[in-house]
Automatic annotation (TrEMBL):
PANTHER family: MULTIDRUG RESISTANCE PROTEIN MDTH, RESISTANCE PROTEIN MDTM, PUTATIVE-RELATED-RELATED. It comes from Haloplanus vescus. This is Sugar phosphate permease. Residues 1-430 form the Major facilitator superfamily (MFS) profile domain. Pfam families: MFS_1. Keywords: Cell membrane, Membrane, Transmembrane, Transmembrane helix, Transport. The chain crosses the membrane at residues 12-34, 54-76, 83-99, 105-129, 141-162, 168-187, 227-246, 288-304, 316-332, 338-356, 377-399, 405-426.
Length: 439
């Protein structure tokens, strides 16, 4: 990779890791907020804080994370990636600083909304930057993906470790610092955003190829209609199901684990020589299980990526979601056996959960025209992180008004729907191949 490639990949990878660090540290805070806040005061009225309440609050932030990706993709074509990445980083830093000052759930909500809006522009900005500015594009995307996976796993782990030493408000403020520093770097880094793009369009029109994008709402509507008129609509439904399952299982996972055998808090004074026995600091095993499950997901993404080279995405998606349905139904029975069996089960669960991503990304490439590929992936992030964010609210409502068994049964049903949709795509493809052979 040349110097320009390294500068771009370095910035994009750093920002990608931070986006997912903040995204997946939030569920760790959720288990604390359930104990910290008793009521939500809004418009002169008071509401009791339950898992359903927090589910809605977290869903609002996560929804903006996904919804903003679509307009973010349009804006990046107009303003360039560097500016949007800087806005993303400074916005996330401001959001977590605000979170650290929160004394009420209203302020927590505002902070999460700010984080969601700021983080939403990253994926279209970062992916566009690599695709247009990096000559060794494949290598650039590989490093970018690795950085995101490290943020997914190490971010929650760092958050859990910091919570051993500080209260949650201080930890939120500490987490704000790296994003602010990275934002300054984004403003100062030197690179050519369009170094890998030919200066002039191949059609001879004289229009610079770096200058693209949707020029009007009418063009956006027509292009979107064409995109969804066909099998891509089924792929989009699969992506939404993935998002619902992902948010549904992860949002309250640390809180769910805290009440299971083997996850009782351990006084830090019993583990650290010299620490006063009166210290109220505790080690919470569920936070480390959660972080470990996410770290194992790195291997799952690798396996899923390799599967796309050997089997059709439809078969892989059907197999992964069929497995996720079984794992959802088995989660609570295995958890009742104790922490050792659950550790083994959690490794399998985490790997399978993240194996779905490269498979459905490959399906998007198969079922969308090359000319609308960017818009297609914009819809993917809208479906996964936007519509899929409702999984958090769904989980909170089920845990409040039913129980954990009902939640995992519902998640199993969502996975079955995704597996069935993948099977529909597979049969459609096989039918088309048969018709082509006969012709």
């Amino acid at each position: 990779m040349n110097g320009n490639d390294r500068s771009i990949v370095g910035l994009a990878s750093l920002a990608h890791a931070m986006v997912h660090t903040y995204e997946l540290s939030i569920p760790i805070f959720v288990s604390i907020w359930l104990l910290e806040f008793d009521v939500l005061q809004l418009g002169g009225m008071e509401f009791g804080v339950t898992q359903a309440t927090l589910g809605l609050i977290v869903t609002a932030g996560y929804a903006l994370f996904g919804i903003g990706a679509l307009p973010g993709g349009v804006i990046v074509d107009r303003l360039g990636s560097r500016r949007l990445i800087a806005v993303c980083l400074f916005g996330m830093a401001g959001a977590f600083f605000l979170l650290g000052t929160a004394s009420t759930l209203v302020v927590v909500t505002l902070a999460l909304l700010l984080w969601g809006a700021a983080a939403s522009v990253y994926h279209p900005a970062g992916l566009t930057l690599i695709s247009k500015g990096v000559d060794e594009r494949g290598t650039g995307f590989a490093y970018h993906g690795i950085a995101g996976n490290l943020g997914i796993g190490l971010g929650p782990l760092v958050t859990a470790i910091l919570l051993l030493l500080f209260d949650w408000s201080t930890v939120a403020m500490i987490l704000a610092v790296p994003a602010a520093v990275a934002g300054l770097y984004a403003l100062r880094a030197e690179f050519d955003e369009t170094a890998a793009v030919d200066a002039v369009a191949t059609d001879g029109s004289g229009t610079a190829r770096g200058q693209s994008g949707v020029d009007s709402l009418g063009e956006f509507a027509v292009t979107s209609k064409q995109l969804f008129f066909g099998a891509f609509a089924v792929v989009f439904a699969i992506v939404v199901a993935n998002g619902l399952y992902y948010r549904g299982v992860l949002t309250f996972l640390p809180d769910l684990l805290s009440g299971m055998p083997g996850f009782e808090p351990v006084a830090l004074s019993s583990l650290v020589p010299g620490l006063e026995a009166s210290s109220d600091r505790t080690l919470n095993p569920e936070r480390y299980f959660y972080a470990g499950l996410l770290l194992v997901g790195v291997a799952g993404q690798y396996v899923g990526g390799k599967l796309t080279d050997h089997i059709s995405p439809e078969k892989g998606i059907a197999a992964v979601f069929g497995t996720l349905a079984v794992l959802a139904l088995a989660f609570l029975p295995v958890a009742s056996l104790g922490i050792a069996p659950l550790l083994v089960f959690g490794a399998l669960f985490g790997a399978t959960l993240f194996a779905a991503q490269p498979l459905y990304q490959a399906a998007v490439a198969d079922y969308s025209p090359a000319g609308t590929r960017g818009l297609s992936y914009g819809y993917v992030y809208l479906g996964t992180f936007g519509v899929g964010a409702l999984g958090g609210a769904l989980a909170g409502a089920i845990l409040t008004y039913a129980n954990a068994s009902a939640l995992f049964a519902t998640l199993a049903g969502v996975a079955v729907v995704a597996a069935v949709l993948a099977t529909v795509l597979l049969r459609r493809k096989q039918s088309e191949e048969t018709d082509e052979t006969a012709a």
